[in-house]
Structure formats: C-alpha cells, structure tokens
DNA sequence: CTAGACCTTGACGCTGACGTCAACGCAACG
DNA sequence: CGTTGCGTTGACGTCAGCGTCAAGGTCTAG
C-alpha cells in the first residue's frame, strides 16, 4: 500500500504520515521508484498514534507504544514503558482536572458576584401592554 | 511611571506590556522623549489581564474587561460584555472538563487492562533469602 | 503523446503570547 | 566625557502538528 491509501484508511493526511516518519515513528520501505510502501501493520501503528493523540498525548509520548508494536507485541501498551506513559498521563490529567475545577469555581463565583452587583436584564415578558 | 516599573509592579515583562499595547489593550501616553508613561489605573488594568490569563482566557477574551475598566467602571466585570465572556468561558470549561474526565476514564481503563494482561513487577520484598 | 492522478523533497505559513537580539537614543552620575 | 542603565523600534525565534504551495518525477488510461 502507498501513502495515499494508508492516509485514507487511517483517516488522516499524507502530510501527517510523512511528518510521523520524519519524527522517527512510522519508517517506510521504498519501492523502486522511491515511493513509500506500507503494510497492514503500519495501519495499526498509525491508528495507535491517532488514538493516543485524540487523548491529548503528544507525539513523543506515543513513541513507546509505537516501538512496542514494532517489537512485535500484540498491542502498543504491552510494554512497561507504555504503562509508565499511561501513569504519567493520568497524573497529568488529574492535576489538570484539579486546576480546571478550581478555575471553574473562581469564574463561577466572579460571575455570580458581578451579576448580583448589577442584575441581568429582567427577562423580557413579551406582553402586549404592561 | 515608565514601562520598567509597571512591569516590575505587575510581575511581568516590558515585552509583554508592549505586546498588550500592540494588541490595543493598554495604550500609553508618551513623555517628551518618547518614553511610555503609565498611571496606577494601568497597573490595575494589567492585573486584570494577568488574572484572566491565569484562568486560561485568551488575550482577546480579556478585551471586554479592559474596556470596561477604561470606561471608568470600578471592576472589569461590571459590564454585560464581560459577563458574556464569563458565561462562554464557563460553558467552555464544562465541555473541557467533560472531555478530560472521559479521557481520564479511558486511559485509566486501558492502564488497568494492560496491567492485568502482564502484571507489574511483583513488589520487591527486600528479604535476605527467599 | 498527453492528460491526470499519484508520488517525491523542500520550504514557508499558521496559531498565541511572548523571548531574545540588534542597533540605536536618552539621562544621570562621577 | 564616558559608562551604565533605562528607554525605543523592528525583526526573527519558540513550541506542536501539521497545512499548503512549488517544482518536479512516475505511472496509467485514452
């Protein structure tokens, strides 16, 4: 399979795949004319990357998963390094969630305060006369 | 007060203040020699911006607050436009929190699954013999 | 033979909020 | 008079993950 087909099958762009290759994820064999050639393994590999990216992982953080897959393991998280990334990301998510909850509370409080100061427009009633 | 002092008092950099000016927040009078000159109002203005930025507001989102302050209101959120931004940001925060909670659950589940597959190192016991 | 669809590399653009450097002016101190 | 420390504008660099364009090579169908 060539890069266009892989991109289509993975639901991404050729530019993205070439970018992954430039980062050392997703190496590709070349056919005689220089075209990149991929196998079905590579599709699974790209899907792994995309899934993690959707979770908010940076590309570098997907590397252990990718290398795990390329090492022949059935899934990208079958290796200790991947589990470490999971755990780090969980801690990061927890910290972020805490921060965002705190911010939400602050913003909410300030909104309430400001609304109390100068009350909102009193809900137009749509009466004919009044 | 000149830009260096304002920066120090606001806990930021001169570059940041010039950037705010370039974005139309924080206009400055000029002294004879071309130096920017600020008053205490401007300090409050910068503090307002920084507070909102710490909450994750983009610079553009701070504009209503800044204009509200410059219009003479006692606080930046005394104006309807600011309240609108608060409300939008709350909705945005709620959506983001939902997404992050979902991601957290997914990552947590995958971690548990992978740990069950290939259990972690069995907690070294520090025995002399065993 | 040629049009069109695919592929190649290389390079610049984008977003946000600045950091950092260059090259210069101005002011005060000794 | 020179140095030091402020100020000025302008312009390029940073981070991530690509998008987009340019200029060209390759392969296939008509």
TrEMBL record, chains A, B:
InterPro entries: DNA-bd_dom_put_sf, MerR-type_HTH_dom, MerR_fam. Keywords: DNA-binding, Transcription, Transcription regulation. SUPFAM superfamilies: Putative DNA-binding domain. One of its GO terms (molecular function) is DNA-binding transcription factor activity. Residues 1-68 form the HTH merR-type domain. The keyword Transcription regulation applies. Residues 111-130 are annotated as: Disordered. PROSITE patterns: HTH_MERR_2 (PS50937). It comes from the Bacteria. It comes from Marinitenerispora sediminis. This is MerR family transcriptional regulator. The keyword DNA-binding applies. CDD domains: HTH_MerR-like_sg3 (cd01282).
């Amino acid at each position: 399979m060539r890069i266009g087909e892989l991109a289509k099958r993975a639901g991404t762009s050729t530019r993205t795949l070439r970018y992954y290759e430039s980062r050392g994820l997703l190496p590709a064999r070349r056919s005689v004319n220089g075209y990149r050639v991929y196998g079905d393994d590579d599709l699974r590999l790209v899907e792994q990357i995309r899934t993690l990216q959707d979770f908010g992982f940076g590309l570098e953080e997907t590397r252990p998963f990718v290398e795990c897959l390329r090492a022949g393991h059935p899934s990208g998280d079958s290796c200790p390094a991947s589990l470490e990334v999971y755990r780090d990301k969980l801690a990061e998510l927890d910290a972020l969630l805490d921060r965002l909850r705190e911010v939400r509370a602050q913003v909410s409080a300030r909104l309430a305060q400001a609304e109390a100061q100068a009350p909102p427009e009193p809900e137009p009633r749509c009466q004919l006369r009044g």
